[in-house]
Specification:
18 strands, mainly beta, 411 residues, single chain, Porin
Length: 411
């Protein structure tokens, strides 16, 4: 009779787990040399219709677990070759300790990304997270230094699960000092309910670094292939700063209400559709953006005539950078369609993404090809085309189009 044996160490959970990826991402930009934002950024550089950029990224994700305690660190290093030359930036995205003394309670302290909200491209209720890139919403992001806990209970009735997550976020010099006003100690919380088949979160933030904010979100599977989700956020005493076409600065304080409604649908042929409507009450009105672009044009004309760039510098610094947000206006529609393995081409997924500014009718459209047929290697080719009239958001971007290849090796 043949004897069998096995080594327990082969199935034993290892205390260490180290992974991550290396990435090379060359980019080609077709510049719009007549656009306001191109004039603002490149006014003192030679005009070029095409600009190149080369990006190298290394992300290291390490974990160590001992008993009920886990330590995690995510470090991201970017090297970039652009018109400014070479630059390097290393950032600790996450670095925290997590302890789970019981099945109903865990505690975290350190730098952490919380990822609140149910939206795919935007999250108006993510009060403690940095904004997503709607063109690449699954990218890793830098967190904030927090202390948080999770209390979780399960039930047999219609309320199947409840959890509460309190969060403390200090803001002092060199600690979360880009979050808001310094020398403040902020408190936030999220209450989660699984009610029947609906996920619901109730969220709040207070403490003084930012004005008080409250929100809720939900997601529900109507069918196994059809999900709907939404978010609603209230911001007390939001202060918006803006300028007119002559450069006169104004501020307006009001209670802002932002919301998102979306759906995700998977067809029988493995086509996934994602649709989201986003209203951002903190965004700029069409007239406010038009005034801003007009002021840039005025500053550029002044620079050409006299060499005086003071107006352009004012345009760069005005409103604390709010004009330079990825989507700085009020109403947007996000559409994405992706097809898994069309024509039986294994490991191949083409997709098409569009972001539409419903206020000024400008938009971006981007086809993408993704191939994962080589072990641990991901190849993605993406093109983004920006379309809009003069003094519209996408019409005044720095470029008319971009083409980028991403080669990512996972380890």
């Amino acid at each position: 009779m043949e004897e069998y044996s096995f080594d327990l160490s082969e199935i034993e959970e290892k205390p260490w787990d180290i992974g991550g990826y290396l990435e090379f991402r060359p980019m080609l930009f077709g510049m719009d040399t007549n656009s306001a934002l191109h004039k603002l950024k490149f006014y003192d550089h030679a005009k070029k219709n095409i600009r190149e950029e080369y990006n190298f990224t290394a992300l290291l994700d390490g974990r160590y677990k001992k008993g009920t305690t886990e330590y995690r660190a995510v470090v991201n290093t970017d090297f970039r070759k652009s018109y400014l030359g070479w630059s390097e930036n290393t950032t600790l995205y996450e670095g925290y300790m997590s302890s789970r003394p019981s099945s109903t309670f865990n505690f975290n302290i350190g730098k952490k990304t919380l990822k609140w909200g149910k939206g795919y491209a935007w999250n108006p209720v993510a009060f403690l997270d940095r904004p997503k890139d709607p063109y690449d919403p699954e990218l890793a992001r830098e967190g904030f230094v927090v202390a948080s806990a999770d209390y979780i209970r399960s039930f047999d009735g219609r309320l199947r699960t409840f959890s509460f997550t309190p969060v403390l976020l200090p803001v002092y010099d060199h600690i979360n000092d880009d979050f808001g006003k310094v020398n403040r100690f902020n408190f936030a919380g999220k209450a989660y309910f699984l009610l029947d088949d609906t996920d619901i979160d109730l969220i709040f933030l207070t403490g003084g670094s930012k004005t008080n904010r409250y929100g809720m979100d939900f997601s529900r599977n109507i069918a196994t292939n059809f999900e709907i989700h939404g978010e609603l956020a209230f911001i007390d005493d939001y202060k918006k700063r803006f300028i007119d076409s002559d450069g006169t600065a104004y501020s307006k304080e009001y209670d802002a209400t932002s919301y998102l409604l979306g759906l995700r649908y998977l067809t029988k042929t493995d086509t996934t559709y994602i649709v989201e409507y986003f209203h951002d009450d903190t965004g700029f009105a069409e007239s406010e953006m038009t005034d801003y672009f007009s002021f840039i044009d005025k500053g550029y004309d002044t620079y050409l005539a006299s060499g005086d760039d003071s107006l352009l510098k004012k345009a760069s610094n005005v409103a604390g950078g709010s004009y330079s947000r990825r989507n700085s206006m009020k109403d947007y529609l996000y559409l994405r369609a992706s097809q898994k393995e069309p024509f039986d081409i294994l490991y191949f997924t083409p997709s098409l993404t569009g972001i539409f500014n419903l206020t000024d009718k400008s938009f971006s459209i981007g086809p993408e090809l993704l191939y994962t047929g080589v072990k641990n290697l991901e190849l993605r080719l993406r093109t983004t085309v920006l379309i809009g009239d003069s003094h519209t958001e996408y019409g005044e971007k720095q470029s008319d189009f971009s083409i980028g290849l991403r080669v990512r090796y996972f380890f």
